[in-house]
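Form P-L/3: holo structure prediction, ligand zinc ion.
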Amino acid sequence: MKIEIIPCLSDNYSYLVHEERTNTVSIVDPSDFSTCDEKIKKYNKLDYILNTHHHADHIDGNLKLKKKYNSKILGFGLDKLRIPGIDISLKENQKYKIGNLEFEVIFVPGHTKGHIAFFFRKEKIVFTGDTLFSLGCGRVFEGTHKEMFESLNKLKSLPLDTKIYCGHEYTKSNLKFCLAYDKENNLLKQKEKRVEDKLRNNLPTIPTTIEEEIKTNIFFKCDDPSIKQLLNLKTASDDKVFSKLRDLKDSF
Ligand code: ZN
Ligand code: FE
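OUTPUT (holo model):
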């Protein structure tokens, strides 16, 4: 499974997935037709388009790509009216094969009501859209904070060495927020240098891993006593801590 990261628009990532054995070409969240097509052209085919959610910056390439390559568009059934050109309506926990690659649908509502992540268990790769970012998580637009918290927990429970490919390059600003509330975290400080190096060289900070996020992403540390204390939420439940952190991040 070969993954090519395609930077689109100002800070989006689309991902081109090539499965070499059956020469199956897929794209996750095509933000923009022309930018994505520049990369697809070399294969002269696009079998599948996978959408994590219905927002414009994740689906704008759908119809033009489908028209050019006669691709099949896969999205969550609940959002079939909001995902342009959808051919295959996926269900929660459904397994689906693209060429030799099998993914599982993880239902992760919160950012939107029908948001899903694509988990390739064998390859240990997950595409998380705008639910989980490197050092952050998406804004809660359509769901509740509790839903978002539970969705993040589903992702947190994936194998530690799972690689995370997310929808945006937000790592640097996320890192600033994490540092503001998790000051003593040495791993976070070490990560700051690596992130700045990559960005200076115009490289993506993606992928990250579940293990790295558990150690550094503050939204994965809602059960951490020192963070609870700092927020004056010593006895609060973890999901209340999540809500507080998400609110603080919204106005950070
Ligand atoms: Zn979005
Ligand atoms: Fe987005």
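COMMENT: The two ends are 38 Å apart (CA to CA).
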